[in-house]
Model the fold of this input.
Amino acid sequence: MTPPSNRVPKYCRFCGALLVVTPQDDGRRVAQCATVGCVGAAAGAPGGPELLVLAFIFAENHMLLLKRGIPPYAGRWAPPGGFVEPYETTEAAAIRETAEEVGIRLELERLIPFAISSLSLINQVYVTYLIKLDRMVEPQPCAPEALDARWFPERAFPMNDIWEPSYQFDMNAVFERLRTGRFEFYQRTDRFLRVISDGEQVRYLEQRDTKPRGNID
Ligand SMILES: [Zn+2]
Done:
């Protein structure tokens, strides 16, 4: 598996086209779609960040991934997840998306907060949950969102064929956490990606040298 890098999401979530990155006067960067006719391009000036959830589901030292059927990252393996709907909790969104995409019903109590990732460049915030099941339940992939769904062990994890936002995590460390039961929490800001573990130990996976002006994190 490759270590996390400083890559940022590059593709429009509506049409899959390359995003155009524009520096702002205050030093921030903004990535927007420039495809004529795309919802992402027509959206105009965005409001606050969009809220998304991811469900990292594990059982018997395997992780559940689905093969995405729609852009962005169509054809790549990714965990269940998606946009939080109005008046929905993040937990309910993770449970709903998992049911819709792979036909597995998660119990609320099993959702353990695992990461908050603020991706200011694309105006999105991801909340990730870790879910441990007792056994590998047979997934029922639901097209068009999911073309396939499988349980992957660490040694056969499809790192070369995985959805790009996986850069937010150190997947080897995620599997290691599952084995040891050690508590870990990921935090991504504009300036760093770090893992906080038991006893407030902090490990930095990425750091940026220059702090964007106008951004507080
Ligand atoms: Zn687009």
User: Anything to note?
Assistant: Helices lie at 39-42, 90-102, 171-180. The chain is about 10% helix and 35% strand.
